[in-house]
């Protein structure tokens, strides 16, 4: 059984202490919504990369693809620029995620090698 199989109630927004300025409470509520969206978006990305990992393991392809990463970084930096987000931060964020994906791919490749 995985964590995803366990029924759980909807996750409420964070509980803020009484007496904080309403503007701060409103902004924090918005931040909570954005964080929730980020978590769901990341979960979808990892679902897709897991399938990529299986495909690569089955075909004996290397877990990482530096050429693809370079193209992604170029595109992401341009998007960040357009969106008024620090491109250096955007690149670091992608690097952080991709490093985790590669770790997953390596584990899948290991499992695949271990199969009879
Ligand atoms: O596109 C791939 O080949 C992937 O394995 C996915 C991904 C990514 O997370 O975007 C991860 C590792 C690769 O080095 C490049 C990209």
UniProtKB/TrEMBL annotation:
InterPro entries linked to this entry: Chorismate_II_sf, Chorismate_mutase-related, CM_bact, CM_dom_sf, CM_II_prokaryot
Q: Key word rRNA-binding present in the record?
A: no
UniProt domain Chorismate mutase: residue ranges: 18-109
Gene3D superfamilies noted in UniProt:
Chorismate mutase
What does the UniProt keyword field contain? Isomerase
* Disordered: region residues: 1-20
**Which is a GO BP term held by this UniProt record?**
chorismate metabolic process
Q: Please give the Gene Ontology molecular function terms for this protein.
A: chorismate mutase activity
Mark the transmembrane ranges.
none
- Superkingdom is Bacteria
- PANTHER family assigned to the protein according to its UniProt record, in alphabetical order: CHORISMATE MUTASE (PTHR38041)
What is the protein name stated in its UniProt record?
Answer: Chorismate mutase
Q: Which organism is it from?
A: Cellulomonas persica
Lineage from the top down?
A: Bacteria, Bacillati, Actinomycetota, Actinomycetes, Micrococcales
């Amino acid at each position: 059984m995985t964590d995803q199989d366990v029924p759980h109630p909807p996750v409420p927004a964070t509980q803020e202490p009484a007496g904080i300025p309403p503007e701060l409470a409103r902004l924090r509520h918005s931040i909570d919504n954005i964080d929730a969206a980020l978590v769901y978006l990341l979960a979808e990305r990892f679902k897709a990369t897991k399938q990529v990992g299986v495909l690569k393991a089955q075909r004996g392809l290397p877990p990482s693809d530096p050429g693809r990463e370079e193209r992604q970084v170029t595109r992401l930096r341009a998007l960040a620029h357009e969106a008024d987000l620090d491109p250096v931060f955007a690149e670091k964020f992608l690097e952080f995620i991709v490093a985790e994906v590669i770790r997953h791919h390596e584990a899948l490749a290991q499992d695949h090698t271990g199969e009879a």
